[in-house]
Amino acid sequence: MEGEMLKGHLDMIVLAALSAAGSAHGYAIIEEIKRRSGGAFDLPEGTIYPALHRLEQAGLLNSRWMTADSGRRRRVYTLTRTGNRALVERRAVWKQFSDAIGGLLGGTRPRENPA
Amino acid sequence: MIPDYLDLLTHELDFDRSLSRRVRQEVEDHLWEAVAADSTGNILQAQQRAIARFGDARAIAAQFAVVSLAKYTKRAGVAAVLVIAAVFMAMKARIAWYAAMQWAISDDMRAVSGLVLQIDRYSFWLAVLVGLGGWVYIRSRGIPAAFHPEYRRQLRRFFLLCTTTAAALVVSVISDGMLTALQLPGRELSAEFLVPIGSMAVEIACVGILVFHLRGIALRVASTAALLKT
């Protein structure tokens, strides 16, 4: 998938992966993204970390240090309540958007928004 | 190979030492975990692959620079408000001290002090209004994913608000210094001078802190732009 297309949705992808994984460190989040997307998302892995720091600053994630089995220090991230709410909102917006685009490309009418 | 990559990344993140340390530890853990997960058995090639998948150190540092800049500007907004509050408390403490000591400006200096007091008052309230405006403005902005033109415009606006706040505070503190100087002639040097002089020192230090933050923003903008240029 196009890198630029992915970058625009990186925050939502990270929030969704973290929501599925629970608490996780950067590497585990990337693995979760790869697993859930069937390997379709192929960004430079390092791109995830600035996104994690940005989301943490925005109050959507918490993080703490822990020691891995290897003995290395590891930063583990968790979604905050605000992060969970943001993910729900972004999912709804994405659903609406993808329905509309799907309708456009597939030639079918998108479902009417009940709201 | 991984230590060299980490050194390069740490070097690129030199503009923010605490961020640099944290990122180094996170990335080190990531890369060694990627090497451990590599099934080929060739450790050198596994390290090469892990680094290649991670991406260019300079490009990643540039993304971190934007996050660091956003964090620093938000902190500068808070600093502006705290500096204004500290200057206000120092002024009030000095006035309360004058009242307690029954110090008053001599009659022949009253006209001059009245004029200086007006300048002091207006410049201070200008600093309060603009400083609070700057804090609210930067607080309400999100943290961007990239150093895009709209974010640069936001930074310019915030920098202008902070510079105006600092300039107004400098005028206010100079006025306070003049008013303090007008209180001192004809009095013998004693421990009673410590409060007015100490409070003036606090005001000057506060303005210094704000100027330091402004300089920090300018330096970080320059380092972020430099990272993105190449």
Summary keywords:
heterodimer; A: 115 residues; alpha+beta; Arc Repressor Mutant, subunit A; three-stranded antiparallel beta sheet; 5 helices; 3 strands; 56% helix; B: 230 residues; mainly alpha; Four Helix Bundle (Hemerythrin (Met), subunit A); 2 domains
Write up what this structure looks like:
Helices cover 56% and strands 14% of the residues of chain A. Chain A has a 3-stranded antiparallel beta sheet with strand order 1-3-2. In chain A, helix 2 packs across helix 5. Chain A is globular and about 55 Å long. Chain A starts with a helix and ends in a 9-residue tail after the last helix. Chain B is an all-alpha fold. Chain B folds into 2 domains: 54 residues, no CATH class; 162 residues, Four Helix Bundle (Hemerythrin (Met), subunit A) (Up-down Bundle). Chain B contains 7 helices and no strands. In chain B, helix 4 packs parallel to helix 6. The longest helix of chain B is centred in the middle third of the chain and has 45 residues. Chain B starts with a helix and ends with a helix. The model of chain B has no long low-confidence stretch (mean pLDDT 91). At the A-B interface, helix 4 and strand 3 of A face helix 2 and helix 4 of B.
Roughly how much helix do the residues of chain B carry, as a percent range?
over 70%
Please give the CATH class of the domain at 3-80 in chain A. Answer: Mainly Alpha
What is the percent of helical residues of chain A? 55-70%
Task: Note the beta-strand portion of chain B.
Answer: under 5%
Mean pLDDT of chain B: 91
CATH superfamily of the domain at 3-80 in chain A: Winged helix-like DNA-binding domain superfamily/Winged helix DNA-binding domain
User: What is the overall silhouette of chain A?
Assistant: globular
Q: Within the largest sheet of chain A, what's the order of strands?
A: 1-3-2
Task: Determine the CATH topology of the domain at 3-80 in chain A.
Answer: Arc Repressor Mutant, subunit A
Task: Find the biggest chain interface.
Answer: A-B, 23 and 29 residues
**What gyration radius of chain B follows from the Cα positions, in whole Å?**
25 Å
**How confident overall, as mean pLDDT of chain A?**
86
For the CA atoms, what is the radius of gyration of chain A? Answer: 16 Å
Q: Which structural category fits the helices and strands of chain B?
A: mainly alpha
Order of helices and strands of chain B: HHHHHHH
